[in-house]
Amino acid sequence: MTTDLHHDLGREFPELKDKIHVLKTENAHFARLFDEYHQIDREVARIEAEVEPASDAYTEECKKKRVRLKDEIFAMLRAG
Fold this sequence. Notes:
- The protein is mainly alpha-helical.
- It is built from 4 helices and no strands.
- It is elongated, with a radius of gyration of 13 Å.
- The mean pLDDT is 91.
């Protein structure tokens, strides 16, 4: 099993790191989405590392939420 289970946005979109920082500091909605994304990403990583038990259905729900958040964040990065 891989030791790096996180989908950190800085690694997902390295070319957009500066824009991520600007939006985090200037856009409250973006900052909330960013925080929510990282919270769910950490939860998925704990589940996948078997640190935190969860049903398959809950795991899939979390993964889908993470994808939705990432899509919304990416759309904001492209638009801004």
